[in-house]
Design goal:
alpha/beta; Quinone Oxidoreductase, Chain A, domain 1; Rossmann fold; 2 domains; 26% helix; globular
């Protein structure tokens, strides 16, 4: 347990944006000399106390995700600066606020992209919690996991199984739940042909989940260098998009019931749609800048569907962790201590991580 009153170390983005004040006013008020996209700064802060319905976590590990650039680079106007990034958090409950039921001090828990819901909007009332119109995201709406401790709503918590280490659990709370939940909601059944487009941070987990779920798993990537890895992860078939017509090859196999698109290229996603089976589904989880272009003929003649899929609520994260512990699915990660967060972030942004960077907070 963290001693009450003791300072904690946190990595913050010291940028403030205000609709009412100029940048210079904001800098003078809270962040002298800082600017948009400013470097991380390691600081000591007062230990936060959980409010009603909240818990405090002693953070053990936090993944570094491309979405952390939302806070780092000021990509949306609602980020409250200064902010501690990080939404792939594994730790231990250190204190519980008033009204918290079911979570006790010492319990291993994680928090992912889903950082709390309002319970009042129409999506929440219909049970679509991850689509909450007032969704809270750690590291974007409130201080996240690049710190020794953080406070989170109790409804954001997922139980971490004993079989998973903190560093593995952290990465599964974003890329893991995104791919696992998308596959189990895709409509594919064991024995169906399922293709994973892209073998990166999302895709290397998607291949593992697909194989462990009993799908006939096809891995699709550029070049021959990833074939050995794809097969090691569980792929039954590998397609090289540089030398093969992927859609034609999928049709030779009977067509894919599901294609999970983890890449960020709209062009690459567009090219595989004709490879879907009748009533097949392209499930998009990768975010890119270029549009997906779809032929009406390809959609209508095969009654095919293209859908987007959000990651999932906290219970979906908990299911992902439980399935991973049971089946042996693990992320490929590289760890760095919190003090090297800037280095880890830069490596991730340069696409040099294989495949995911995770910050560790010591004992």
């Amino acid at each position: 347990m963290i001693q009450t009153g003791a300072p904690i170390v946190a990595l913050v983005v010291l940028v403030e944006k205000s609709l009412q004040r100029s940048w210079q006013d904001a800098q003078d008020a809270r962040c002298p000399g800082c600017k948009k996209g400013a470097p991380f700064e390691l600081v000591e802060r007062e230990l936060p106390s959980p409010g009603r319905g909240e818990v405090r976590l002693k953070v053990q590990a936090c993944g570094v995700c491309h979405s952390d650039s939302i806070a780092k680079e000021g990509l949306i106007p609602s980020v409250p600066y200064p902010i501690v990034p990080g939404h792939e958090i594994a730790g231990v409950v250190d204190a519980a606020g008033e009204g918290v039921i079911g979570w006790s001090v010492g319990t291993r828990v994680g928090v992912g992209w889903f950082g709390g819901h309002c319970g009042r909007c129409e999506p929440c009332r219909r049970g679509d919690l991850v689509d909450c119109r007032n969704l809270r995201i750690p590291g974007i709406n409130y201080d996240g996991g690049y710190a020794e401790a953080m406070v989170a709503p109790a409804d954001a918590l997922a139980l971490i199984p004993d079989e998973l280490s903190p560093v593995d659990a952290a990465r599964l709370l974003c890329a893991g739940v995104t791919t696992y939940n998308a596959l189990r909601e895709s409509g594919a059944r064991p024995g169906d042909l399922v293709a994973i487009l892209g073998i990166g941070g999302l895709g290397h987990l998607g291949v593992q989940f697909a194989a462990k779920m009993g799908f006939r798993t096809v891995a699709i990537a550029r070049g021959v260098d990833k074939e050995a890895l794809a097969r090691k992860l569980g792929a039954h078939i590998y397609l090289n998009s540089q030398t093969q017509d992927v859609a034609a090859e999928l049709n030779k196999l009977g067509g894919a019931k599901t294609i999970l698109a983890t890449v960020t290229s709209g062009k690459a996603m567009s090219s595989v749609i004709p490879g879907l089976a009748v009533r097949g589904r392209l499930v998009v989880v990768g975010v890119g800048a270029d549009p997906i272009q779809i032929s009406a003929f390809d959609l209508i003649m095969g009654s095919r569907t293209v859908v987007g899929h959000a990651s999932g609520a906290s219970i979906d994260s908990q299911d992902t962790l439980a399935f991973s512990a049971l089946s042996g699915v693990r992320p490929t990660i590289e760890t760095m201590p919190l003090e090297r967060a800037s280095e880890a972030y830069d490596k991730m942004m340069r696409n040099e991580a294989r495949f995911r960077m995770v910050l560790t907070m010591g004992a």
